[in-house]
Protein 1
Amino acid sequence: MSGYLSRERKVAIEAVEQASKVCKLVFKQLVEGETLTKGDKSPVTFADFSAQAIVNSILEKHFPNDPIVGEEDSKDLQGESGEKLRSKVVELTNLVISPSLSEDQILKAIDRGQYEGGKSGRFWTLDPIDGTKGFLRGEQYAVCLALIEDGKVKLGVLGCPNLPHDINNEHNTGRGSIFVAVKGRGAFRRPLGGSDEDETPIKASSITDLTKTKFCESVESGHTSQSDSATIANKLGITLPPVRMDSQCKYGCIANGDADIYLRLRVSATYVEKIWDHAAGSILVAEAGGRVSDTNGDELDFSQGRRLEKNVGVVAANASIYDKVIEAVKAQVSS
Ligand SMILES: Nc1ncnc2c1ncn2[C@@H]1O[C@H](COP(=O)(O)O)[C@@H](OP(=O)(O)O)[C@H]1O
Ligand SMILES: [Mg+2]
Ligand SMILES: [Mg+2]
Ligand SMILES: [Mg+2]
């Protein structure tokens, strides 16, 4: 494929593919060792750090001048206290990446993610595992990578290793998708491990009857106000129960037409959303013909640094119902 951001698109897909591999490997070890329910959080930390090391070193190889706003840093891997974690991260990273990287190269790759972001120039933003809690539960998580230029998202790639190909028939279907969107070029889905020929265009739903819409939200009641969303759903006449799902897979479902509304309603007055939690997902929904804003109806502003300082919460919906949804959301959050 040639054209606008075609190299970036290809490299980003490759990076997300490789990072998804490490996540699946770690999860397999978790299950096989039966440490999933009794384990502390360290196994997921291996996956987070390794995935960030992999994506950042692939980006560095192809785009050495591009800075990266990544969720993780190497602090916990440093010194004597970080020794165990560090050696595990080095081992895992080198299972996926070749030629092998030294310990020092891996730590440096992770710390390429410390960029502050901002208004001008171009940078990447990475969430190596979005939905850590979902990952630990064996449910949904996503490897999320986006390219931002002068404060606007231009490319987004979401790797969703556990997402059923058909969410309405999840026990009889394959799992694992990559969602891709480039500004002005539409949104696509391909199977994880697939090729460009396997890509198909996706569209948000066009449903207008609110009583038949499906809304989704976080599994975690600490990340979104599930009581406010219930009130809003009720006011809108939505009858179906919420689809609760971790991570930016929710944006994938909206972009794909599998769900119609995504509500993320602030629970804590002090929490500010991070750019890596929304960059890839929001361009995906926009390019699939859906709409995304914060709960005041304002555009998500990715030019404010590492966090969405100007925004509160998130609302995504298909374009035909968005106006009604945002009206109900505004009324609820201002009451
Ligand atoms: N109080 C809070 N309100 C909203 N989001 C929060 C939050 N605390 C953590 N999060 C974010 O919620 C993300 C997961 O999204 P979801 O709840 O939709 O699954 C987390 O990403 P990580 O898992 O990458 O840390 C984290 O950044
Ligand atoms: Mg996240
Ligand atoms: Mg994360
Ligand atoms: Mg995290």
Note: The chain has two domains: 6-202, 210-333.
Protein 2
Amino acid sequence: MTQAQRIDGKAFAAGMTARIAAEVTALRDAAGVEPGLAVVLVGQDPASQVYVGAKHRATVAAGMRSFEHRLPAETSQTVLLDLIGQLNADPNVHGILVQLPLPAHLDASALIAAIDPSKDVDGFHVINAGRLATGQDAMVPCTPLGCLFLLQDHLGDLSGLHAVIVGRSNIVGKPMAQLLLAANCTVTIAHSKSRNLAALCRTADILIAAVGRPEMVRGDWIKPGATVIDVGINRIPDGDGTRLVGDVAFAEAGHAGAITPVPGGVGPMTIACLLQNTLTAFRRKLAAEA
Ligand SMILES: Nc1nc2c(c(=O)[nH]1)N[C@@H](CN(C=O)c1ccc(C(=O)N[C@@H](CCC(=O)O)C(=O)O)cc1)CN2
């Protein structure tokens, strides 16, 4: 049996982070200021706590200022809107994100809409989504941006390739489609209700699995030689404990050309791209003030 090449997102993200840290040092030496990232976490979701902790450590390691706001699950919409208003006005904060998912009583769309689009380092604000869709400078959502970097590093020019994206979320599926269209791919967005999903996936040169269901994409959904990007991070029972699996049945994907592992694939790229977006927001502010 052939063995698909493993796309090492962890190593790629480490290289990006080192480059970003060097740029932050150079900017601090030149301008005497450094980028600041504010992260708002509401509630006790265990996975979100892990991700927010990882964001804090990565931000500090890159020489940026980290402003963490960990709030109780019962925090009201009004209190959060007030906090976002303060962060928008704070000159030391260049990037703001609200960690998702939020407790059910909160309106995530309204909170994201309250973030200054120039500080929206998640790229979830409709202004940034619209800018991306119309080919203008935008803050690009971190996970799809990370997927694009891995694809371009592995394949080079993506022109003319058929990309099938399984998943239509605002966070991954839709912005991923915009990025791949801009890179001259032919793009199909599929989802759990698409007819003949397995056959559709078999037509993909690039298969992006972002559906949030453990190992839903089986080996016989993958065209031999295809490049597979697995965005899923699913914790499943394993013996007495748990383990992480993606949306792709990794063990059945040996005939792919290349595949991202879970963990160690797309996940670390999400955080590296968050640092990149924060640096971009900072640079744009410096340029606007010059
Ligand atoms: N406001 C946001 N909320 C969420 C986002 C986001 O981009 N913005 N994405 C995800 C969670 N996420 C970042 O927030 C994220 C997920 C996974 C990883 C990661 O590095 N995963 C590791 C495994 C970690 C583990 O052991 O659990 C890996 O894949 O190697 C980083 C960030 C939802 N919410």
Note: The radius of gyration is 19 Å.
Protein 3
Amino acid sequence: MAHYIKFNQVNKSFKSEQVLNDVSFELEKGKIYGFVGRNGSGKTVIFKLISGLMRPTSGEIFLENQNMTHAKQFPKSIGVLIETPGFIPHYSGMKNLKILNGLSSSPASIETLEKSMELVGLDPKNKKPVRTYSLGMRQKLGIAQAIMNSPELLILDEPMNGLDEESVKKMRVFFTNLKKEKNVTILLASHNKEDIQVLCDDLFEISKGTVKRSKQSQEEVVV
Ligand SMILES: Nc1ncnc2c1ncn2[C@@H]1O[C@H](COP(=O)(O)OP(=O)(O)OP(=O)(O)O)[C@@H](O)[C@H]1O
């Protein structure tokens, strides 16, 4: 099967620290991939390399045959939730989404923005400034921001951080449906074994600079 994302002998160092050491792997379209590893193992670095927010020290990275190694533009059709989302604190959630949407190369309609907020369990009409949001609400707004432009590739770094049990369940169903119904590829970093077990088709373990593929258990999983 043709690759959708490809790492070819990728190295990434920061001064004397080598975070990725000759890493090669290929990912297919329309699957959910889990990335696991200890704190500081390099999950976020991999996500930033794929989304063009960081460059490799050497090696090549391809996204749908586009060579991302020296890409100058953020690739189209990627939704990203990496680290704590930065929002303008004195604006409402909806106003923040409108501003970010205005920067997109394929802006969504107001209705789509509202729907994205509703999908994650936020009220688009709520005028509360984001600075008063709880951790979970902020995280939900981060997910809404990542999905609002209907991306083909969704990169989610610890997306369930701060979400209550019911919201986690809803998000799991939502991400699974995005894959099944819209063929969205999802890359997920999580320290939560259950999220990985329930959501991912395939798993990558990152340790000491290497990335090892390990097959997800084939048990039938109910979301
Ligand atoms: N911009 C940077 N400058 C210097 N070092 C960095 C930079 N970004 C990441 N690193 C280092 O790269 C290593 C991997 O970091 P990364 O954020 O990818 O870890 P992670 O696997 O996502 O960890 P966590 O589970 O804690 O989120 C860490 O040692 C980190 O300090």
Note: Residues 84-150 form one domain.
Protein 4
Amino acid sequence: MTQSFRVGTRGSALATTQTGWAADQLAQLSGLEVDTVLVKTEGDVVTGSLANLGGTGVFAAALRQHLLDGGCDLAVHSLKDLPTVQPEGLVLAAIPPREDVRDALCGRDGMTLDQLPEGAKIGTGSPRRAAQLRAYRQDLVIVDIRGNVPTRLGRVKGVGDTHDDGSVGRATQGDLDAVILAAAGMRRLGLEQHITEYLDPSIMLPAPGQGALALETRTAGTGHAELDQALARFDDLHTRLQVEAERALLNQLEAGCAAPIGALASVQDGELVLDAVACNPDGSEVMRRSAKAPLADVAAAQALGRGLANGMLADGAAVVAGLA
Ligand SMILES: NCc1[nH]cc(CCC(=O)O)c1CC(=O)O
């Protein structure tokens, strides 16, 4: 009889889709079978604005507790939702190759950001996205929205109406001209056709870790040698170095996932390049900085992130981003 491992997931469409993808890859690599364990998390029932939730990792906490308690062997998270400090007893055993890192505009009637009319209403619950949108176009009206990806997409005029079979949100009548969502989530859910513009990082830097998954286990391992080996093979070094640099920056700025901070690392000509932005939430001030280092190990990637953060702090980033 084939042995199986248990993977824990949140219940949202995005969570179950990306957990299913990761678990299938690990099943193939390990030769083991997968059992999926659904874990209800606090983040799924809280209805306040993301701006008020802070960086406490509400989405991940219950799943992590389940993992620590032995209720599953592995948890799959969106890396950008994880707090930057790793909890005792758990490790990110694998960070698979990253999806598209960019933020995506889903506009009504095929419109791009520049085509939206004066005073257009754009939905996002993210202070980072709101600040960068305001900095780019002062006339836009930012509407604070929450909910899972299909629900948010359903707020766009026309989108909620045409897809009332439940595949896209519950809204039957959109009230917004556009929403901003992570391209990665849209692609994983097969909703790419609703993207009307992939926002260039020169306009909108993504959240640290955006587009990456984190496969977490207990520090002692999963209890399945084949699975531990499969995780090691699934880990993507370039993705790991990128996200370690981005998260070290966020951590050094003492900011969480709800802060108006964007960061994106990339590998260019054998170097790790890190771009970062700290914004005033109203978009009136935008501090953008960049740094690079030879491509080396995790410690060097983290040093790059910390160093860039320290330079930004010296120039007043904490005041700009309202972290002070
Ligand atoms: N905060 C929710 C969340 N966490 C991860 C993703 C998308 C997938 C990813 O960035 O890896 C999303 C939705 C979104 O931001 O549009």
Note: The longest strand covers residues 271-279.
